[in-house]
Design a protein that fits this description.
InterPro entries: DUF2306_membrane. By secondary structure, the protein is mostly helical. 70% of the residues lie in helices and 2% in strands. The chain is built from 9 helices and 2 strands; from the N terminus they run H-H-H-H-H-H-H-H-H-E-E. Strands 1-2 form a two-stranded antiparallel sheet. The radius of gyration is 19 Å and the shape is globular. It starts with a helix and ends in a 13-residue tail after the last strand. 30% of the residues are buried.
Length: 250
């Protein structure tokens, strides 16, 4: 691996960590608020009344985003295959917990001001993207059990893109707030959905720009960077010469 490709990998990883930072910090602030016995307000009353789902959601989503960013560093996977496997075993339950609690909160928490109807555009988007995230994690897990590295990565990239939607939603909201002030119900729904859509579109571009898999010879290694536990499988990737862009992070 060249120095330029290694630097590019770290830039991608740093970018994902920065994108994760805002929702992680906001979530930590919410947990601290709940732990301190803060006074109830219209913004936090539903969390104070039933705190467990939001606490589980914040902790699991934070771990999913932060650990997931490191999983996309190809050099780190090669040098630390055991770390990759252990982190993956943490990511799967964290991702499912984040998606599951997100669905629960959408269905059962009282609606905050500005969210619109429970089954309006934003509510349906939350239910849809949350369901797809959970399904993608399950499919990724089943793929790695079959030693299908290519499909494992593709489904995990999709799940991670949806899980990181909260970070991109900050980017879609900030310009609007700076120019036009707080968005109304319809505009807020559009800006929230845009965050997920942007991530999913980028994820699909990344997946499709990966080299096509080729059939491996009997007994050939599929992807040595995953370690001995993932050595054999039905497909292998063509060799690559480094990490030139986001399309090769998975």
């Amino acid at each position: 691996m060249t120095k330029s490709s290694s630097a590019a990998e770290w830039r991608v990883t740093a970018g994902l960590l920065v994108l994760s930072a805002v929702p992680v910090i906001a979530g930590a602030s919410r947990v601290a608020e709940l732990a301190s016995g803060a006074e109830a307000t219209p913004a936090n009353a539903r969390f104070l009344a039933v705190p467990l789902p939001v606490v589980v959601h914040i902790i699991s989503a934070s771990l999913f985003c932060l650990l997931g960013a490191l999983q996309f560093h190809r050099g780190l996977r090669r040098r630390r295959p055991r770390w990759h496997r252990i982190a993956g075993r943490v990511l799967v339950p964290c991702g499912l917990a984040a998606a599951g609690t997100g669905l629960w909160m959408t269905l059962y928490y009282p609606l905050p001001a500005g969210d619109g109807a429970r089954f309006g555009a934003l509510g349906l988007a939350r239910l849809g993207f949350g369901t797809v995230m959970a399904v993608a994690i399950v499919l990724s897990f089943l793929a790695i059990r079959r030693r299908d590295i290519v499909r494992h990565r593709a489904w995990m990239i999709r799940a991670y893109a949806i899980g990181l939607g909260a970070g991109t939603q900050v980017l879609t909201h900030v310009p609007w707030v700076l120019v036009a002030g707080q968005p109304g119900t319809g505009t807020r729904a559009v800006l929230m959905i845009a965050g997920w859509v942007i991530n999913v579109v980028l994820a699909e571009r990344i997946i499709r720009r990966r080299p096509r898999p080729v059939r491996s010879r009997p007994g050939a290694a599929v992807d040595r960077e995953h370690g001995a536990g993932h050595e054999r499988g039905p497909v292998a990737e063509r060799p690559r010469r480094g990490l030139g862009d986001l399309g090769r992070i998975g």
